[in-house]
């Protein structure tokens, strides 16, 4: 019988923000590790051992102004990172509501991030009271999620957990919002091009190896780990972004290996788990036999030399026949960027992925590349 999704109301943040003392302590320790990565970046930079590819740049340059701030203040992912580093229990327990930099959606106000000022301070204690004034019927993304999920294997039908202040319309036991929909779009594309079914099959006999460059708060990695538990997922990002990703994934996947890389030349182990790597350690990372490399909504925001450096890493790490999945917008505020031309300097054979399930893709043009 076809799936009949049932709307069960809306999940507000107070109901999804329980964080135990142990979870809070773990996150504090993680943030200490992130401070170490940033200190190491500073030291290596001042010794002249890191080049420009090591610094946040392009759209992630912390001095870059957001065009939509009406008071012209400089706000960015660093604003959110600074909030996180206050190590305030109330902020950490609602970390998802401070993650707008990654999806471009301001979950806290249920609006595209470009329609709102950046969240610059701790949300008020009675934030849910205000949220109740914003919430109406499920938005379009909930319908899109359900239509798409209905055409995909049942094993893909889940959402982010009711944790870290996740908010959204409750459908069956899922919490749906524009954020959830955007990650399902990628899962759908990876399914339709045959990659996910092949990796699921392979994971029955061996640990699948996936590397994601620019992993944000860990949204896609969360979906992939749920779908392929027998996987080693290597996440490469700026230390400031790894602060979100590692705090999030280590909490929602307790009891499995979460390794934060703190040295150059790191060999990624074989078994299942997560490995977190600073962008500046990526060039020397040893991650052979990759089954899949991923970049979404991120390379188009980087400098060409960063893209080329990552493509070289992908080229030397993909197993024979394995592919690079990339979904980015063809345009960028770094107006001159030609992403396809930059990637083509290293990788070959770009193929567009067509979806028979999603009529209009929302998060950029999906392509597969070969080494
Ligand atoms: C718009 S977010 C997209 C995040 C995630 N891929 C997603 O689609 O939800 C861009 C990501 O690229 C990361 N990023 C920016 N510059 C980077 C660099 N030089 N190396 C690795 N990641 C970088 C950011 O920190 C951020 O996590």
Put the structure in a nutshell.
The chain has twelve helices and 13 strands. It is α/β, with parallel strands linked by helices and 371 residues long.
Descriptive terms for the model:
three-stranded antiparallel β-sheet; Rossmann fold; globular; 18% strand; alpha/beta; single chain; 371 residues; eight-stranded mixed β-sheet
Describe the model:
This protein has 371 residues and is an alpha/beta fold. The protein has a domain at 182-370: Rossmann fold (3-Layer(aba) Sandwich). The protein has helices spanning 21-46, 77-84, 89-92, 100-103, 127-134, 140-149, 178-192, 195-202, 219-227, 239-252, 304-317, 339-344, and strands at 7-11, 105-106, 111-112, 168-171, 174-176, 208-213, 231-237, 258-260, 273-278, 290-296, 318-328, 348-352, 365-370. α7 packs across α9 (219-227). It is globular and about 50 Å long. The N and C termini lie far apart (43 Å). Residues 56, 60, 102-103, 213-216, 219, 236-238, 241, 279, 296-298, 301-302, 306 line the site of S-adenosylmethionine.
């Amino acid at each position: 019988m076809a799936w009949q999704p049932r709307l069960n109301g809306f999940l507000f943040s107070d109901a999804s923000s329980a964080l135990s003392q142990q979870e809070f302590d773990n996150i504090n320790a993680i943030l200490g590790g992130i401070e170490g990565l940033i200190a190491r970046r500073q030291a290596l930079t001042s010794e002249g051992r890191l080049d420009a590819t090591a610094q946040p740049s392009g759209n992630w340059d912390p001095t870059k102004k957001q065009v939509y701030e009406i008071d012209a203040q400089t706000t960015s992912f660093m604003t959110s990172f600074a909030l996180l580093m206050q190590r305030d229990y109330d902020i950490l327990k609602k970390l998802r509501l401070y993650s707008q930099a990654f999806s471009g959606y301001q979950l806290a106000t249920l609006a595209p991030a470009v329609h709102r000022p950046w969240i610059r301070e701790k949300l008020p204690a009675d934030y849910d009271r205000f949220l109740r004034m914003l919430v109406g019927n499920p938005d379009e993304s909930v319908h899109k999620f359900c239509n798409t999920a209905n055409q995909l294997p049942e094993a893909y039908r889940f959402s982010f957990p009711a944790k870290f202040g996740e908010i959204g319309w409750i459908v069956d036991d899922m919490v749906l919002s524009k954020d959830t929909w955007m990650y399902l779009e990628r899962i759908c594309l990876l399914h339709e091009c045959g990659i996910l079914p092949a990796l699921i099959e392979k994971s029955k006999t061996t640990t699948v190896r996936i590397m994601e460059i620019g992993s944000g708060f860990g949204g896609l990695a969360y979906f992939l780990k749920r779908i392929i538990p027998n996987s080693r997922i290597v996440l490469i990002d700026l230390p400031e972004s790894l602060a979100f990703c590692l705090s999030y994934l280590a909490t929602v996947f307790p009891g499995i290996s979460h390794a934060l890389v703190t040295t150059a030349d790191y060999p990624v182990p074989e078994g299942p788990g997560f490995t977190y790597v600073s962008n500046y350690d990526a060039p020397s990372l040893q991650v052979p036999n990759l089954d899949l490399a991923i970049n979404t909504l991120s390379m188009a925001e980087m400098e060409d030399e960063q893209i080329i450096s990552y493509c070289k890493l992908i080229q030397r790490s993909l197993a024979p026949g394995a592919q690079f999945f990339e979904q980015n917008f063809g345009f960028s505020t770094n107006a001159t960027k030609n992403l396809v031309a930059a990637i083509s300097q290293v990788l070959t054979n770009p193929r567009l992925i067509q979806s028979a399930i999603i009529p209009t893709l929302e998060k950029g043009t999906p392509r597969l590349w070969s080494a």
